[in-house]
C-alpha cells in the first residue's frame, strides 16, 4: 500500500496573487476607467445625439458635412454621457456600441479596483478569454451600430 501524500492538491492550494507591479498597473487602468466615466457624467449630452464631444474641445466631425454620413464613432461620446447619467435606453438609441463600451468600461473599473485591492487574477483570466471570435463580434457590432446610426441620420429610423 502506498504511503499517503502530504502535498495539498493544486485544486485546494491557496491561489497565486498578482505581483505588486501588476496590481499597480491594473489599478492605474481602473482609475483611468473611473476618470473616463466621471468625465462622461460631467458632460451634458447633446439633444441631437451627436456633438457632445465638442464640450471637450474636440472639433465637430466633418463626415456629415463632407460625406452626408455619420462617422463610425458618431454618437459615442453622447452615448457614454447618457450611460453615465443612467439613461440606458437613450444611450442605446444614441449609439448602441457606445452603450456596450460604456458598460464594458464600468465593468472593468469595478473588476480592476477589485483586482488591484486583492491581487485577484480575474482580470487576466477574462482578458485571455477574448479570442478571435470576440474580435469578430466586436467588429460586427461596430458595423451594425454604424449602419444603425446612418439610418437614424438619414431619417429611415426614428429613435
How do the helices and strands line up, and which of them pair or pack?
Blueprint: H1 20-42, H2 63-67, H3 76-84, H4 88-94, H5 96-118, H6 122-128, H7 132-153
Helix pairs in contact: 1-3, 1-5, 3-4, 3-5, 4-5
Describe this structure in words.
By secondary structure, the chain is mainly α. Helices cover 60% and strands 0% of the residues. It has helices spanning 20-42, 63-67, 76-84, 88-94, 96-118, 122-128, 132-153.
Short note summarizing the structure:
This protein is an all-alpha fold and 159 residues long.
The number of helical runs is 7
Terminal-residue CA separation: 74 Å
Order of helices and strands: HHHHHHH
Share in β-strands: under 5%
| Count of spatially separate domains | 1
Low-pLDDT ranges: none
What value does the average pLDDT take?
A: 90
What percentage of residues falls in helices of 4 or more residues? 55-70%
Rounded to an integer, what's the Rg over CA atoms? Answer: 21 Å
* Biggest beta-sheet profile: none
Number of beta strands: 0
Helix/strand structural class: mainly alpha
Shape descriptor: elongated
Amino acid at each position: 500500500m502506498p504511503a499517503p501524500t502530504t502535498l495539498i492538491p493544486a485544486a485546494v492550494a491557496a491561489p497565486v496573487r498578482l505581483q505588486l507591479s501588476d496590481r499597480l498597473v491594473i489599478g492605474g487602468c481602473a482609475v483611468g476607467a473611473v476618470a473616463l466615466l466621471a468625465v462622461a457624467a460631467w458632460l451634458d449630452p447633446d439633444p441631437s445625439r451627436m456633438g457632445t464631444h465638442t464640450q471637450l474641445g474636440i472639433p465637430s466631425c466633418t463626415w456629415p458635412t463632407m460625406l452626408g454620413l455619420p462617422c463610425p464613432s458618431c454618437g459615442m461620446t453622447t452615448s457614454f454621457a447618457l450611460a453615465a447619467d443612467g439613461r440606458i435606453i437613450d444611450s442605446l438609441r444614441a449609439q448602441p456600441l457606445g452603450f456596450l463600451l460604456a458598460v464594458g468600461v464600468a465593468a472593468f473599473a469595478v473588476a480592476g479596483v477589485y483586482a488591484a485591492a486583492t491581487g485577484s487574477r480575474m482580470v487576466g483570466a477574462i482578458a485571455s478569454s477574448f479570442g478571435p471570435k470576440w474580435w469578430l463580434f466586436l467588429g460586427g457590432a461596430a458595423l451594425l451600430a454604424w449602419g444603425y446610426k446612418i439610418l437614424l441620420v438619414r431619417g429611415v429610423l426614428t429613435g
